[in-house]
Each structure stands twice: as structure tokens, then as C-alpha cells.
């Protein structure tokens, strides 16, 4: 925006007797609502870092949603709401700074400076700001800042943030090829895990320890597979239990390998027939993090799916409460760390390869330098319940699937 366009906004507001009604915060948007005695005028600011811009919108052009609560909004409601506006002006010589004056000692300063956007509520000697104030210096205003200006209606059409529609710019051929390579890598890991379980020597080692005759080749296995340094009967019991666990997991891993191979055959058939349907999936909805105004981490999975996690136990709980019942909830079994949620449509199926991809991401996010084999719990959000009165983040869950992931 040019400085002359800020002057247009200030001049338009200055011709009315206004009262401040509210301040409304949304992701990327801020709106001051004024009442001129007969209608509503919204001063809407797009707070994007590189190019913050402002415009005036009527009540039918801007519909406010529930505002995000911030310290500055609380202070505004208590000390500025319903006050009469005495003047609105741009601070000449200071660039993109718009001032809404309530009295000689009370004003609002909007600093629409690229990469330094801020709002200051100045009340006598007290200043409340949206973010840490930057030291602004006077600038020399060039004549070009007041030439070829946009009209108020043109400014209004440009202020609202565009709906982000992210499309994968890669060709469908490349996407399909990457999918096949990723699936082949996953199958290779599962095959290695299956072979390790089939050739397990836990039971053989336990029996050798029981009779007290341990061959040299088994002794090497025992030494490398005794992380808790058990001895005597504890070690025998431990090896017998590990042998049982491996045997019980064999059918699960075999089933998973069969499903992955079937999925790979399907993709190879698509590649052979040059069938690229369903590969380019646009993401046109904001993630749960953005719509909730929370920080955290987002990861885009294959097939257009998105997985998010909170930055803290509090955020995890908020995400859990705000997410639809059919979203998929993930957590590393028997380990502290973040919960995660996979966005999906109701009854939408997610392939095991994509699930493993999400599990691997969660492990890297939850555990510093993960290495080895981990179990990751996956269930629909509807089956996850926070434990009342317990430590924040503790939940109960049911109807879960367990994915065994090796990193």
C-alpha cells in the first residue's frame, strides 16, 4: 500500500462521528469495528508480514468470527470499547503508521510496516502492544507514494486473504514413481522385520540357558540382545517372553506385508496403464492448527493427507477437543511425547504406507534421535478420552491398531 492510500482511509473515517465497538483477531486478519450512528464501518487489516495492508468494509462485506483472545484484546475491551473517536490520521513523516485518537492521552497506533507489523494501545504513560515494539524512525516520503492511488473499493477487494489452494506442481508421472519407490522401501523394511522374527533365536537361547549349555554362536546372540543386563532366571524368562511376542506378531506382519504388496501391484498397474487419477489432490481446507489459531507442526503426507501435532500438552488437548470424530489419532506406545491427528474425510480410507509415513514423522517429532523398533497406536479420535483429574495429556483409548515401525 502507498502512503496516499492510508491518507484516503484516514480522511474517510475522519468525516464521521465514530465510536469504537470492538476489535476482532483472526489468523492473518484484524478488524476494528466502528459505529457512525447509522451503520457499521470495519477497518480491516491484512497482517501478512511482507505486505500488511488495510481497507474499509461494510457490515455485509466483512463478517467477523469469534475473535482470538490476546492480552491486547482484553485491555481494549476494558479501556477502549464504546469510546468516541476524536480523530483518525496518518502520522506524517513516519510512514505506514495510522493513528486512531480517543483523547489527548488515549490512542491506538497501527504500524503497518513490512516485517514489523504491530498495534499499540497508548493510554497515558501505559502502552500495551500486540508484539514487542520496534523502534521506528522518521522517513523521507517520496512523491511516488501519493501518485496512481487505488480507490477505497479497490483496496477493499485486495485486503481479504486469498484462500490457499496448494497444488502439487510435480507431474503425475513423477508422483506415481515416487509413490512406488516409497512403497518399495517400506516393503523392504517390513520384509527385514519379518525375516528377523522368523529367524529369532530367543526361544533357542532360553532353552540353552535353562540347561546350562550355551554354544558360542548363541552366546554372541545373548550378549547383543540383553539390553537390561538380566542374568539367571530373569534372563531365561525374558528370552522366553520375547520369543512368544515374536511368534504372536508374525501373522500381523505377514498380513501387513501382503496388503503392502497388493497396494504396490495396484500402483504398478496404474503406471503401466498411465492411469494418474487421484494423484493430484488439492489441499483447500485450513488445517486444524490454523483454524484453531494454535502453533504446532504440520506435515503433508502422500495422497494429499495432512498430519498435525500440538506444541504442548495443552495444545494437544485443544486439538483433540476440536477435531472431528473420524480424524485418526496417533501416539507412540509406552513413551512420552506428542499426540498427532491425521485429517481425513468421514469414512475415507488411508493406506498402510501413508500410515507408516505418519508414524515415522511422529517418532521423529516425539523422540530425540529415534532408533530401533517402536509401536505406534492409531485409532479414531472418537475412541480417545482425556482422563479427568489426571495429568494433562493423559488419555484412555480403545479400538486401536498398532503399527510396528523401524527407524
What would your notes on this structure say?
The protein has helices at residues 3-14, 71-79, 152-159, 172-198, 202-211, 216-224, 232-273, 288-292, 313-322, 352-366; strands at 19-26, 29-35, 40-46, 53-58, 87-90, 97-101, 106-111, 118-123, 126-129, 297-300, 306-309, 328-332, 340-343, 373-380, 384-386, 395-397, 401-406. The protein is 36% helix and 22% strand. By secondary structure, it is of the alpha+beta class. The protein folds into three domains: 3-159, ibrinogen binding protein from staphylococcus aureus fold (Roll); 172-273; 288-406, no CATH class. The strands form four sheets. A six-stranded antiparallel beta sheet has the order 10-11-13-12-14-17. Strands 5-6-7-8-9 form a five-stranded antiparallel beta sheet. Strands 1-2-3-4 form a four-stranded antiparallel beta sheet.
Alpha plus pi helix count: 10
Q: Give the overall average pLDDT.
A: 84
Largest beta-sheet details: 6 strands, antiparallel
- How do the strands line up in the largest sheet? 10-11-13-12-14-17
Query: In terms of per-residue confidence, which ranges show pLDDT below 50 for 5 or more consecutive residues?
Result: 163-169
Fraction of helical residues: 25-40%
Order of secondary-structure elements: HEEEEHEEEEEHHHHHHEEHEEHEEEE
CATH architecture descriptor of the largest domain = Roll
Beta fraction of the residues?
15-25%
What form results from the Cα inertia axes?
Answer: elongated
Radius of gyration: 30 Å
Q: Give the oligomeric state.
A: single chain
What's the number of domains?
3
Structural class determined from secondary elements: alpha+beta
